[in-house]
Amino acid sequence: MNATGSSLPRFRQSELTFGLLMMFLSVILSPIIDIFAKLAATTIPPAEVTAARFIFQSLFALPMMALRGQWGLWSLRRSGVHAIRAAVLTLSMVSFVTTLQVMEVADAIAIFFVEPMILTILSSIFLKETIGWRRYTACAVGFFGAMLIIQPSFAEVGFVALLPVVTALCIAVYVMITRVVSYSEDAWPMQFQTGIWGTLICLILLAIGKGTGSSIIDPVVPDGTAMLHLLGVGVSAAVAGVLTIYAYRSAPASTLAPLQYFEIVSATIFGWLVFGNFPDLIKWVGIFIIIASGLYILWRERRFASKPVSDTSEVTFTP
User: Fold this and answer.
1) Integer Cα distance of 73 and 77 in angstroms
2) Contact, 261 vs 295, CB < 8 A?
């Protein structure tokens, strides 16, 4: 137990430094996933881009499971739970890649970061976590910041501008399920099963969409350039996932979580370098409000959370 009565493990300074470094590298790399996804989505439907990401996730998890001797931890008893997790994650990823077809990367990621606010509200309802009026107020302020970004985007692209909120909602549900499962299962088998189920779900969607002309689920044969973009999505997502796993194994989640907001900054930089996109003043105000609200919620969670979350749980999806 620490001074506050928490059962979270103690971490040495060297572990904390390593964890912070891994998380910093992860949040720098994560927007590259979305850059490649946006490039791929110009010719490849989002469901196919999502399938490529799941395939690489599974391929990266396989050798790690072998090296760690975790084949026995791949439990078929909970396949139904992992299938649900994969279905929710698939919906979130398809929604986000669909958004990237028409929206700037930084705008979409900034809107997605209402996810901690949605998770806070859902946790109070379904996990019976104690949430005070201050965190509810921070959630409302954060949603207002998201509206500042969504409003001009909605005028430009219509209801697609709301899809990052769908992504955030799905990820919040995914995180809640993962919180429960992670207490009894290891990260790598969870990653592997999620990847397998996600790939299967995507293949079913692509089979249904074949020949329909749908820009979301009708598969196409990628050319050489598109294959490189899909490879970029898969490799960068797998590497970012590995970095995040080791970050959370080396430092507590409450210490690492604020660094995730740096992803908005790195996404803005990459979006400007690759596509020449840069948020205007109103969007920057919205981004600042979302970041401030999210950091306040994390601070309140760190001080008053009713239940500590395992710091060795599976990493959450980063758009």
Assistant:
1) 11
2) yes
